[in-house]
Specification:
181 residues; alpha+beta; Arc Repressor Mutant, subunit A; 3-stranded antiparallel sheet; rod-shaped; sequence-specific DNA binding; Homeobox domain-containing protein; transcription; Homeodomain-like_sf; Leu_zip_homeo
Amino acid sequence: MIASMEDDEESSNGGAAPPRKKLRLTKEQSLLLEESFRQNHTLNPKQKETLAMQLKLKPRQVEVWFQNRRARSKLKQTEMECEYLKRWFGSLSEQNRRLQREVEELRAMKVGPPTVLSPHSCKPLPASTLTMCPRCERVTTTVIDKGPTKITAAVTTTAATTLSSKVGTPALQSSPSSAAC
């Protein structure tokens, strides 16, 4: 609550007295009050008395000035925080709109099943995956065809030898017990 610079004494005639004039501070008084406020936002009673004597004001006037100054300071801080939050909100809103556009663009793309270009005919072929049995080290190629649920699995024994020669490891041996895999 912001109080007036005047004492809060009620007039004895029921408020019929003319309103009091607002206290005007000199530049020197204002500068000293501001300097005191920068050093300490609140005053203890002794500081208030000392400052009031220096300024030739009543202690209550100094107290009210400090209350008003704290209120103005808090309001200014709140305004600054509000502006910062508005800018941050604007930035986040723009980022959100950009990401939503990107999601819509990605949804608009029609992505088919993965394909690979044939080295011989340069035509797209269905992609295949290589899997290796951890027990027998046999390599299996799985080709996914574009047709309705056509999945072809071809077991190649030479793929293990070819693969190992390309990566520089000894040829993978196919053991008789691995035929059951």
